[in-house]
């Protein structure tokens, strides 16, 4: 487990890893393409390691150039063995991104239900609807699901999502790639993680028009030769978590390696709280040393809409808001089990948070927290508890590191680079 103690305000400069939630669909897009892709800035967290292992098991080569662990070349292998049983697909949520490439390669995708964070019921019926729009058939039982390829068809596939699911948007886009069919997708998810897949497809000749209400894709007229080179964007959530930690300790520090536009909703929330922060040319500067908190209420409502606040920013913002004056509201109806992971753990540190409903809560800051033993039941609960531990009197011990490492190769190390008093201890 990790032991966290309050210390001096965080200072200095740290660089974020590539984003887990962008790397996962980009790896699946590389597999769907069927021609070599070099992917740079791949993070070393365990979810991404599992995805790379799944790709290899399912028939793709994953080659790391010598001394470049964050780069991989993904390309299909020649051998066409039977569809494998991908048992570890049950460990990560994003295993469902592999369905289009598995169907294209093996004629069917047979997978266990996806895993990932236990943050409430996490359906995937919209993915099946997307595949059915392409003519595929899906069946499922308690242990998993199976999607079987339709006989090849031509023509544009049109489909409207009833809500802006990121997973279902990527599913439809990648199925368009593996069938080389034009797609018109209504009410798409246009989060940075989806946009980076669309940008990657543009580099290999796909015509992409991403409007708020309609996403249109048309395949390239000729197949691109050579190796496509794509970059995983820096992890906006890791950067946001570090920003909350810097602000909670009233520090002034720089976080490098993240795209400016990906942080706009987080920076708006920091400004609302009176924390001076901004990005320029991939560098996020947080200047909380002499900040004067506004005392204004923060309304942090997780959203799937374009430009909305990513649900994964909410937990670290909540940990920060506990140290700032004002009555702050948090809501995450996207991940309905998140608050039941996070709130009881913050309560162990002495936080007083009023649950308005299972997905909405209000807290009034500033509150004085006291170190205690806490447990990460999901990635962002883990990172939020580290932020809270930096302001709690005494020692906070955090268990459940396997959860944290699913999303970050070494978040404690990054906080230590900024001067945080964090160490790993063997219980
Ligand atoms: C790997 C990855 O990128 N995970 C992110 C992704 O999760 P996830 O892949 O769950 O995100 P989606 O946008 O697809 O889903 C949003 C919500 O709709 C539900 N849903 C989705 C599809 C469906 O067919 N049926 C259904 O009920 C999901 O269970 C979830 O509760 O977006 C979440 C919300 O922004 C983030 O917190 C997760 O970190
Ligand atoms: C919820 C998350 O991940 P996943 O969807 O992979 O479980 C997350 O990244 O916080």
From TrEMBL:
EC number(s) per entry: 2.5.1.7
Any Pfam family the entry gives: EPSP_synthase
Top-level taxon: Bacteria
Start and end residues of each Enolpyruvate transferase domain: 5-414
Location(s) in or outside the cell: Cytoplasm
Gene3D superfamilies hit by this protein: Enolpyruvate transferase domain
Keyword field contains Lipid biosynthesis: no
Principal subcellular localization: cytoplasm
Record flagged with keyword Cell wall biogenesis/degradation: yes
Catalyses which reaction(s): phosphoenolpyruvate + UDP-N-acetyl-alpha-D-glucosamine = UDP-N-acetyl-3-O-(1-carboxyvinyl)-alpha-D-glucosamine + phosphate
Keyword vocabulary terms for this entry: Cell cycle, Cell division, Cell shape, Cell wall biogenesis/degradation, Cytoplasm, Peptidoglycan synthesis, Transferase
Pathway: Cell wall biogenesis; peptidoglycan biosynthesis
Top-tier EC class: transferase
Family affiliation: Belongs to the EPSP synthase family. MurA subfamily.
Role of this protein: Cell wall formation. Adds enolpyruvyl to UDP-N-acetylglucosamine.
Protein name in UniProt: UDP-N-acetylglucosamine 1-carboxyvinyltransferase
Source organism of this protein record: Streptomyces hyaluromycini
Taxonomic classification: Bacteria, Bacillati, Actinomycetota, Actinomycetes, Kitasatosporales
């Amino acid at each position: 487990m990790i032991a966290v103690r309050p210390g001096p305000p965080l200072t200095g400069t740290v660089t974020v890893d590539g984003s887990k939630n962008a790397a996962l669909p980009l790896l699946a897009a590389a597999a769907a393409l069927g021609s070599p892709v070099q992917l740079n800035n791949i993070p070393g967290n365990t979810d991404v390691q599992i995805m790379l292992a799944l790709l290899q098991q399912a028939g793709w080569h994953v080659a790391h150039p010598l001394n470049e662990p964050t780069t991989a070349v993904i390309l299909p292998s020649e051998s066409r063995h039977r569809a494998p049983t991908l048992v570890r697909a049950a460990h990560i949520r994003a295993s469902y991104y592999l369905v289009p490439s598995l169907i294209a390669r093996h004629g069917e995708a047979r997978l266990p239900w996806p895993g990932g964070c236990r943050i409430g019921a996490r359906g995937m019926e919209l993915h099946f609807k997307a595949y059915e729009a392409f003519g595929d058939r899906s069946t499922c039982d308690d242990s998993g699901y199976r999607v079987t390829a339709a006989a090849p068809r031509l023509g544009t596939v049109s489909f409207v999502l009833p809500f802006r699911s990121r997973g279902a948007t990527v599913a439809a886009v990648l199925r368009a790639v593996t069938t080389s069919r034009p797609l018109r997708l209504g009410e798409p998810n246009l989060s940075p993680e989806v946009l980076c897949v669309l940008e990657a497809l543009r580099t290999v000749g796909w015509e992409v028009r991403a409007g708020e209400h309609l996403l249109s894709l048309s395949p390239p007229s000729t197949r691109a030769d050579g190796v496509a080179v794509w970059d995983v964007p820096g992890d906006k959530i890791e950067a946001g978590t570090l920003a909350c930690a810097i602000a909670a300790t009233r520090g002034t520090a720089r976080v490098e390696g993240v795209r400016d536009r990906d942080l706009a909703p987080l920076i708006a929330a920091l400004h609302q709280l009176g924390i001076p922060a901004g990005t320029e040319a991939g560098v996020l500067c947080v200047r909380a040393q002499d900040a004067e908190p506004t005392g204004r209420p923060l309304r942090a409502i997780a959203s799937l809409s374009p430009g909305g606040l990513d649900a994964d920013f909410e937990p670290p913002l909540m940990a920060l808001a506990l140290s700032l004056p004002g009555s702050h509201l948090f809501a995450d109806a996207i991940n309905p089990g998140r608050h039941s992971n996070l709130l009881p753990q913050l309560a162990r540190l002495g936080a007083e948070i009023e649950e308005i409903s299972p997905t909405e809560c209000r807290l009034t800051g500033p509150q004085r927290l006291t170190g205690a033993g806490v447990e990460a039941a999901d990635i962002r609960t883990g990172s939020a508890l580290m932020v809270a531990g930096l302001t709690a009197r005494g020692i906070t011990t955090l268990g459940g590191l396997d959860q944290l490492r699913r999303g970050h190769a070494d978040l404690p190390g990054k906080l230590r680079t900024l001067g945080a008093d964090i160490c790993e201890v063997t219980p």
